[in-house]
Known about the structure:
Blueprint: H1 2-6, H2 13-26, H3 31-48, H4 52-64, H5 69-84, H6 88-96, H7 101-111, H8 113-127, H9 129-135, H10 139-149, H11 153-164, H12 169-195
Amino acid sequence: SVMNAYGQxxxxxxxxxxxxxxxVREGKGEASQYATVLGxxxxxxxxxxxxxxxxxxxxxxxxxxxxxAANAATYLRNLFxxxxxxxxxxxxxxxxxxxxxxxxxxxxxxxxxxxxxSKIRDLTNEYGEDMLGKVMPQIRGMLSILMLTGKNxxxxxxxxxxxxxxxxxxxxxxxAVYNVTKNRLNRANAExxxxx
Length: 196
């Protein structure tokens, strides 16, 4: 799904696995849960210019705040859908705050997910939470903004950085599992030999 959404030349299998490994390590949940839900997000993310590492980092971050990977994906997907196809009410509210979905999409594509969420949060702080409710009338889209820009912003930034700066994470995880398995096998062999 990831390579189809972003294009084969834009992300490798190794990078995809490294990002997935980092998301599992940084967040809460199993690799299979992340793989399933991330596949539902990448078509929207790719269309908006949001990189896979940002999507995985956002989902991992929301799991640390208590959301399941599936719910985190739903919250983020709702945000993406609102930016791709905004309701008239959302556009009116954004214009009243001196912004627009086109501007938010530009920030998203040029600067990334966290800057656009911060912009929405800044607009909310300036114009009030009622306006956020008009921009994101469904709680699911609003939750992604609140969970990723709330009091835990430092933790979110660390997770986002960890999923961005992956370097052979999958190979390192494989090696760690191999070493543990090898050590257990060596101990079992030693115990077997000593009992004979």
